[in-house]
Amino acid sequence: MSTAKNRHHHGDLKRALIQAGIDLLEEGGLEALTLRKCAARAGVSHAAPAHHFAGLPGLISAIAEEGFAIFSKHMTDAIKAGEQTDRERLRSICRGYLQFGLSHSGLLKVMFGEHGLGIHAPRNKREEADAYLILRSVCAPFVLDGEDPHTVEAQVWSLIHGFTLLYIGGEFGCSTTPIEDSPFEAVMALIDRIGTQTET
Amino acid sequence: MSTAKNRHHHGDLKRALIQAGIDLLEEGGLEALTLRKCAARAGVSHAAPAHHFAGLPGLISAIAEEGFAIFSKHMTDAIKAGEQTDRERLRSICRGYLQFGLSHSGLLKVMFGEHGLGIHAPRNKREEADAYLILRSVCAPFVLDGEDPHTVEAQVWSLIHGFTLLYIGGEFGCSTTPIEDSPFEAVMALIDRIGTQTET
DNA sequence: GATCAAATTTGACACTGTAAAGTTAATCTT
DNA sequence: AAGATTAACTTTACAGTGTCAAATTTGATC
């Protein structure tokens, strides 16, 4: 009696298909992601995936969900690294966001894409590592008195999400050497002003 | 002797194909955009587009280029509306950015997508209406002494681009009634702090 | 009017998603 | 334990897609 859920031929086909899909996605982008190729990589016939996902959109949704899990782990690690002040944690999460985008650009696009469900889709397991809750907790210390928490979240999220996508897309002069670049530092400088009093 | 470049059967097939592509894109998203459907809508055979574009990616690039032209006009109109202060112009361009995204979401995704070429691709005609130059000119008044102009541009662009994509994706509670909503106002409040002195 | 080149069509091929029917293997029932 | 049942997977088939090579049409040129 193994830990795998499926009993027949393949040990855990569903997971194997998701992993094959992620590999194809990161190797050749969304266009290379194909049900038949995933099936071939998993060693099953081309129609097998239909029994585990609702077509290609269904597989993409599952990949996106797995992507959010990886993303959440990435964020959690970025925050846990050493003792940090609230401000440092906010900076760390932004750096982690960009780094995730750089190393998993295909995954990030799928997560927020057409069939990606978005960040608020209910993930069955480990609610405490939910990506949105991480963002929320890191932003919380910078919510001013009487201010809506969503305000800070929207500011931080929009800034780092927009910068990451534009940076990945090469809009800031395609992938200049270090991350510590002027446009990123500009964004971080603005992040640093969030949660401070506006000058009169 | 007409103004059309093409001499044979169709008056201006290239433009007709691009327009058909934009229609398909906004009707059914990127998945509905197909060379054969574009050809059918333009009333030509399925292989005709190959003589005007480098395959589907080529058509998408052309659509993206047309999208940037529409985008630039949208921005220009937003700025020209009435006499505005520099600060009002900055707010207007951000509102225009979001409004364009709301009414042309498919086009916006293609413009910054895989085959979209991005905002810096050389557009042959009307350089003065280039989208990036518009952003640059609106941001210019808020560049502090000795500061890199790219700083302000990166801040403004990242903020409004990220917010627009997240808003379109329904991440802020899918399309709440008016644009003057709390998350958008939060972003605008941060925009209003750009170009002001940081408190000591 | 014959020639020529560009624009478009026709036909074909490989690849894709998808559905229906068939096959295998593990579980259940009695 | 033997047959029935069901889940996992395969096989087969079909419509739609991009793409290529070869006709074919069309407008212009000489």
Secondary structure elements and pairings:
The structure is a homodimer of 200-residue chains.
Chain A: H1 13-28, H2 35-42, H3 55-80, H4 86-103, H5 105-111, H6 131-139, H7 149-168, H8 182-193
Helix pairs in contact in A: 1-2, 1-3, 3-4, 3-5, 4-5, 4-7
The structure holds a DNA duplex (30 and 30 nucleotides).
Would you write up a description of this structure?
The structure is a homodimer. Chain A has about 200 residues and is an all-alpha fold. Chain A has two domains: about 1-50, Arc Repressor Mutant, subunit A, CATH 1.10.10; about 65-195, Orthogonal Bundle (Tetracycline Repressor, domain 2). Chain A contains eight helices and no strands. Chain A has helices at about 15-30, 35-40, 55-80, 85-105, 105-110, 130-140, 150-170, 180-195. In chain A, helix 3 packs across helix 5. Chain A is elongated, with a radius of gyration of 19 Å. Chain A starts with 12 loop residues before the first helix and ends in a 7-residue tail after the last helix. At the A-B interface, helix 7 and helix 8 of A face helix 7 and helix 8 of B. Chain A binds a DNA duplex (30 and 30 nucleotides) through loops.
